[in-house]
Write a structure and sequence with these properties.
This protein is an alpha/beta fold. The protein contains 17 helices and eight strands.
Length: 488
């Protein structure tokens, strides 16, 4: 029996070393510390601040300390209730997103509470603190089934009950005792250590924010995890992808997501043709968009209504010097809006950003100039489609003579034909017919339009079918472009 207990403890220690399990437990520990820190701050703040004389700006009338206490408590409860309403209506919200938002609001509330101020400041601080902690609790609560799914994926579902200690770190009961005990002591100390406690609460909320930002499982991967566990047949590509997220060091592209959110607001577009999109995670869409120098990739990533994995040429993903030369030749060199002396410095600066961003977006490198490695591109693309990840391809050939060796700024250039070989490769692996959706992004009219779905036909001759796909895709993209040019 002792040997069994020793084996169980060893298993628990091993589970805590798994990156995904460790980070999910860290979120719970950080939330526990943040709630205790904020509770102690409130316990020190209310007696110290409210039992002294608070003067309102209106008329300089002295307010009753009990009125101030009641206002602060009601503000705190209102913030907590508001977080419950937000969490209830945002059922599809990402758990880590709720944690990040809650930590930021909690930081703002603690900052307001840490310094002297009028009643309005106190109420605002309590409301923001309650709202932030409530959202954090809602996010952590939604991460609980994710941790269960991670253990099932690891084959350690039986160890879920053995992690009761970590689960208890989230429970409000464990926090309430610490807050009440500390509050009883701080009622005597009053506001003497309020600033120190405020700094401690800020540190706790900051740690929670860092833990939330490092949460490896977003809504997309949580859905894939449930999908993997709900099916009986073995899904090797999906298992491999999930192992890379759960068992290795995986960082979320928070900065890119923030940039996308901002660009959505400051760079609005009309989106047409959504009725042509038929979402199917068992047979994802392959989107094909015009390049238009840098405009096409940016507009496509912003306004395709689902997460996509873009294809990117290896020249801008592998070697920095090669990337800088490529960007200077095809993007910033021909750009008329950029002064000549700045073209090379900007190309080198964008090189760093491109390498970081493309790897964060899980882009698939295309080895155009290395045919022996091109098979790796199709292998990675087929595995991504098997995992339910849609593709985004920019099929224009920048080296075409008729395009003066560059991307068309308006219109559609000559298309490569090699991308169409993804369809037979995908069919041979899965028995499913690849779905292509052409689209066009018009910079002048700030409009993105999707065309009609084109489906691979495995009964045709492979070369004939390849030419058909390329021809129909090119025709649709040119037709969409012409229609948009005609629109007033």
């Amino acid at each position: 029996m002792e040997e069994n207990q020793t084996q169980e403890k060893r298993t628990i220690r091993q589970l805590r070393r798994v990156p995904a399990v460790r980070r999910l437990i860290a979120i719970r520990c950080a939330l526990n510390g943040a709630m205790a820190g904020v509770g102690l701050l409130l316990a020190a703040l209310l007696p110290g601040l409210l039992l002294t004389v608070m003067v309102m700006a209106l008329g300089g009338a002295t307010l009753s300390p009990w009125l101030c206490v009641a206002s602060a408590v009601l503000s705190l409860l209102a913030g907590a209730a508001g977080s419950g309403l937000i969490a209830r209506h945002a059922k599809d919200a990402e758990p880590s997103g709720l944690l990040v938002l809650g930590a930021l609001l909690g930081l703002a509330g603690v900052l307001l509470l840490s310094f002297d101020g009028v009643l309005l400041q106190l109420c605002a601080g309590c409301a923001l603190t309650g709202l932030g902690l409530g959202l954090c609790c809602a996010g952590a609560h939604r991460l609980t089934p994710v941790l269960q799914d991670v253990l099932r994926f690891l084959g350690e579902e039986a160890q879920w009950k053995e992690l009761r200690q970590e689960r208890a770190l989230l429970a409000l009961n464990s926090v309430t005792g610490a807050v009440l005990l500390g509050g009883a002591v701080l009622l005597v100390l009053r506001s003497r250590f309020r600033l120190a406690l405020g700094l401690a609460a800020l540190v706790c909320m900051a740690v929670l924010l860092v833990c939330a930002l490092n949460c490896p499982v977003d809504r997309r991967y949580a859905h894939k995890l449930r999908r993997f566990l709900s099916r009986e047949e073995e899904q090797k590509p999906l298992r491999k992808q999930l192992e890379g997220v759960l068992l290795e060091k995986h960082r979320r592209p928070w900065l890119i997501l923030a940039i996308i959110a901002v660009l959505h607001r400051v760079y609005p577009h009309r989106v047409l043709g959504r009725e042509h999109l038929r979402m199917d995670e068992d047979n994802p869409i392959v989107y094909l968009c015009n390049h238009g120098e840098l405009y096409g990739p940016v507009a496509a990533m912003l306004y395709i209504p689902e997460y996509v994995r873009p294809w990117s040429i290896s020249q801008i993903m592998v070697d920095p010097q090669e990337t800088a030369e490529y960007l200077h030749r095809y993007n910033f060199g021909p750009a008329r809006w950029l002064p000549g002396p700045l073209k090379w410095p900007v190309s080198r600066l964008v090189t760093r950003i491109a390498h970081w961003g493309l790897h964060a977006l899980e882009a698939i490198p295309v080895f155009r100039d290395h045919p022996s490695q091109l098979r790796n591109t199709f292998r990675m693309a087929v595995e991504a489609l098997q995992c339910g990840d849609p593709m985004l391809i920019f099929p224009e050939n920048p080296n075409a003579v008729e395009q003066d060796h560059g991307y068309e700024r308006s219109g559609v250039g000559t298309l490569f034909s090699g991308f169409a070989m993804l369809a037979p490769a995908y069919y041979n692996r899965t028995g499913k017919c690849c779905r292509f959706v052409p689209m066009y992004a018009h910079q002048g009219k700030r409009t993105v339009k999707f065309g009609e779905e084109i489906v691979f036909n495995p009964d045709n001759d492979p070369i004939t079918e390849r030419d058909r796909l390329v021809s129909e895709i090119g025709a649709q993209m040119n037709r969409i472009c012409a229609e948009m040019e005609e629109r007033v």
